[in-house]
Amino acid sequence: MSIEPRATYRFQFHPGFTLDDAVALIDYLDALGISHLYSSPVLQAAHGSLHGYDVVNPQQVNVELGGEEARMRLSTALQARGMGLMLDIVPNHMAIGGADNPWWWDVLKFGAASRYAGYFDLEWGPPETRHKNEVLVPVLGDQYGRVLDHGDIQVDASGPEFLVRYFDNSYPADPRTIGPVLLQAAHDCGSEELEKLANAYADEWQRRARTERSAAALDARLRKLRAEDPAVHMAVCRVVDQLNHDREALDDFLTRQNYRLAYWRITSGELGYRRFFDINTLIGLRMEDEEVFVETHRLILDWLRSGQVDGLRIDHPDGLRDPKGYFERLRASAPDAWVVIEKILEAGERLPADWPVDGTTGYDFLNRANAVLVDPRGEDALLDFNRRFTGRDADYLELVRQKKLEVIGSLLGSDINWLVELFYQVCERHRNYRDTTRREVRTVLAEMAACLPVYRTYVRAAEGEVSQTDRDFTRAAAEMAKANRPEIDPRLFDFFCDMLLLKVSGELENELVMRFQQFTGPVMAKGVEDTVFYNYLPLISMNEVGGDPGHFGLSVEEFHQGNAAALQQAPRGLLASTTHDTKRSEDVRARINVLSEIPGEWTRAVERWSQILKRARRKFPIDPNDEYLLYQTLVGAWPIEEERLLRYMEKAVREAKLNTSWTIPNAEYEAAVVGFTRAALRSRTFRKEFLAFLERIQPAGWVNALAQGLVKLCAPGVPDIYQGAELWVYTLVDPDNRAPVDYGLRRRLLAELDRCTPEEIWARAPEGLPKMHVLRQALALRRRHPEWFGPGSDYRPLYPSQGDSMLAFRRGGAICVVPRLNLRAGNRKEMQLRLPPGRWRNVFTGDVLRGEISVSDLLSRFPVALLEKI
């Protein structure tokens, strides 16, 4: 790493915001104090991709972002400013797409004989014998036979190779299946040359050759022959047309391909490849294979070695079969790279100490910084009101278990089916468990996954590695699972637990262990983040990636302990507050957190609003849970356009999977949600009352946002700024958080900062100017004194003379002071803070201080303080 990281700025690249657009903003980022541009994936993604995680070709730069030339311009511009680049990469999966992904296209064309068949996490011998040696492609809108009878699947011979088409989807035909078609055409037109070519296509050696070169040569010969001999061309067209109108012949042609086009709903129970979560179009890679690693990382490693890239953000490493092995291989290939990983750490979980990485992408910090701004004194009142208003009394941990089981049985049905078959085969090999049924095996697998309190464990079967942490989490899950399922012989749970801890091992047993570990991450993500978080709503600011809504708030002391640990364990880890994956932006959460301070006032307001809208509710019967989500969302995200809010509510109610879902949409209920939401926004009485309440809490929300922002800029680690978040950003879950950013406005406001006093900056809070001021001044201090904040620095908590409504800590010659729980803090005039010896300048106001100071006076001109020793 050539440039020590000070702060990153995340850009989301897509065809509407390219690498050249970033080049034009490098000077602006430098003026803010950013050291590293933090780029979303730039390798070739599926056409029109808005995020870049659907890579189809890892060996070229995305042409829709400007290609290699634009990447070089960006690299040159960064180096000219002395800035670095952190690149987001996706080792877990690729987008299967069509011909844009040459590796996947080759697999579809040649099947298990393809040289790339081993690149993908495919199973060529699934439990369902009818699917042997074929890839299930679940794209059809109805049952295969009905689609075929309707004429929606056709063979297309108009291009350079034979294709199978289903609307806009295209798939290659196995060369062997083309031979009989061409042979019939040869007999029709009497062409000996075409007959020779047909026999070449049908020859079994083509299968064994498993190279695209031979097939391409045949395609070229056929194309040339058709161009030179109109009779041949007409004969081929005629035979293909006959094939498309003969359902039996077409069915026979399709069944002899290396893939089977199938109804999209079949993925709930059958699928022969590992996906990214439940997304059928993203297929897992076997990154543990050396060749796959080399071929997918060729460009990335070249950029690292040449100094054009300084760091990597590793997407979803929990999906990899062997995360530690991957990190070791990556570190060996790029020993000086700055590497952070998208690892979600749950409560009580730490990053494995032996992983050669610099830290996480910062969700652990995000949830600490958010929770410390939540008033735990509001918990009981908010929980009680949530029960009364929604009519639900679910225990959080039990709700997590239930929703995990729900997604296992629906969205991840095909994934668990594979595990069931493996476990069943294992039981067959152990006489004490030979009489176990598949139902019992499924129950054990599902219950263990539902009870595991973390995303996954990291047992390495081949190396025989089992950490104490993995033992603790696995045993805890087994004990809970046994208690939940008394009808299952507890010895079966113990047997599986022993297997997961390598006390029972063997080739099949170890395979089950490694597969199960890849399964539990999607269970957690889909069951909790994408389901529970839309059902459990006492305070939705707590419902964040890696968050624990069941644990209400965080004490100041716990916050300090987390920061001190981060300094020791990951001083170069990222510190996030908003990302492209967060459920709500940092400023939305900051405002919602205020509700925890005034639960009585808040619940009375909701009761009034609900009463005002009772006629709308009768006309548009909405679930009380969704109604309560709407009110909290309005509080956090206002001002918000009607269409944005409607899109969010549609996504939220589908994610909740109660009254509607993505797989089985309930149009009637979704119409009710739309109708009620519109009625609320258009009700003058509701709007008046709502805006009065918002006016009451908005200043406290701004202070919360500044507090968490300054803490992020000073805490151990590298602060990450999401695009546009240097001003207030009131966005919701994607795609809402990927909206275009007005950089013209931001440039103008940055230029105006130097002409404003601290009081004038705070007076312009509605514009977001205070947030930009905090960012620029704090990063300027980090630029002047990097030794105070980087690895090897210190972290010392500071405490006021009384109360807990302030958070302060020292980093070398800098002191961060922020208020918390502002509406319940009362008068801070009595609160004193003793400064370390010497003179200290507040970088936000210019005030010089020393000795014992009043916190109220310190924050009188600007609501947060950063002191620099002078």
Question: How many distinct helices?
Answer: 33
Question: Based on CA inertia axes, which overall geometry fits?
Answer: globular
The largest sheet, given as strand count, sense and whether it forms a barrel, is: 8 strands, parallel
Helical content (DSSP H or I, runs of 4+): 40-55%
Integer-rounded radius of gyration: 30 Å
Mean pLDDT over the full residue set? 94
Global structural class: alpha/beta
Sequence of strands across the biggest β-sheet = 16-15-14-5-2-1-18-17
The total count of strands amounts to: 26
Distance between the termini: 31 Å
Strand proportion, as a percent range, falls in 5-15%
Are there runs of 5+ residues with pLDDT below 50, and where? none
Helices and strands in order:
Blueprint (H helix, E strand, L loop, with lengths): L7 E4 L7 H5 L2 H7 L3 E4 L3 E3 L9 E7 L5 H14 L3 E6 L3 E3 L6 H9 L24 E6 L3 H6 L3 E4 L6 E4 L2 E4 L2 H15 L2 H11 L1 H6 L2 H17 L1 H16 L1 H9 L3 E5 L11 E2 L2 E6 L5 H16 L5 E4 L8 H11 L4 E4 L17 E2 L2 H9 L7 H12 L5 H14 L3 H17 L8 H14 L16 H17 L5 H11 L6 H23 L26 H14 L4 E2 L10 H8 L5 H14 L1 H6 L4 H14 L4 H15 L10 H16 L1 H31 L3 E5 L20 H11 L4 H6 L5 H16 L11 E3 L7 E6 L2 E6 L12 E3 L5 E3 L5 E2 L2 E3 H4 L6 E5 L1
Parallel strand pairs: 1-2, 1-18, 2-5, 5-14, 7-11, 14-15, 15-16, 17-18
Antiparallel strand pairs: 3-4, 6-13, 8-9, 9-10, 12-13, 19-20, 20-21, 21-26, 22-25, 23-24, 23-26
Helix pairs in contact: 6-7, 6-10, 7-9, 9-10, 15-24, 16-18, 16-21, 17-18, 17-21, 18-19, 19-20, 23-26, 23-29, 27-28, 29-32
Can you walk me through this structure?
Helix 13 links the parallel strand 14 (311-314) and strand 15. The protein has 33 helices and 26 strands. With 870 residues, the protein is an alpha/beta fold. The model has no long low-confidence stretch (mean pLDDT 94). The protein is 48% helix and 12% strand. The longest helix has 31 residues, at 684-714.
